[in-house]
Amino acid sequence: MNQSTLQELTQFRREVDYFLQQHPDSPLSNYQKSRFTGLDYYQPDEAFVFQTTLDFFPKDEPVVEMATSTGDTRHYRRWAKFAFEVEGQAAELVIYSDPWGESLFLPFKDATNGSETYGAGRYMDNHRPGLWVHGESLIIDFNYSYNPYCAYSEAYSCPLPPRENWVAVPIRAGEKNFE
């Protein structure tokens, strides 16, 4: 990674740690905040930064119900899919949008879940760095992948990655298990 990109990622991770420890909207309990020393991340690795082409779903793609960690459902549309390769193994993921196509959401599971990373999967979205869309082109930096709030507290209801977003490859980038 070039120095500028590494500095941006490092600064973003510091901001996330500060939010988790100091902000009133943090998902951490007061007890967790008192013991919090920062999240655990994989070392930044440019092997997990991809520029690829998006394959868009039709605009009239029906709304899908995504199960959550608490048994509820959330509504999304399949927005686009993209292919990439990790350690010589092909993988494909679907990016979802809210029903109006304004917010993008990428929930995924990979070969690290349950051992190195949160068992229920990790996320990326267009409200944080790491997922940049330019027309039909996507730049995705898995170094920004993060745990859902339910990794920190059972009080949260988090969408679970649908089966089509379970990949067999290990994505050793981004946030690790929360202890």
Structural write-up:
With 179 residues, the chain is of the alpha+beta class. The chain has a domain at 45-165. Helices cover 15% and strands 30% of the residues. The protein has helices at 3-22, 30-35, and strands spanning 49-53, 55-56, 63-67, 73-86, 89-97, 104-108, 122-125, 131-134, 137-141. Strands 2, 3, 4, 5, 6 and 7 form a six-stranded antiparallel sheet that branches. The protein has a three-stranded antiparallel sheet with strand order 1-9-8, with no helix packed on it. A hairpin with a 5-residue loop joins strand 3 and strand 4 (73-86). The longest helix is centred in the first third of the chain and has 20 residues, at 3-22. The relative contact order is 0.21.
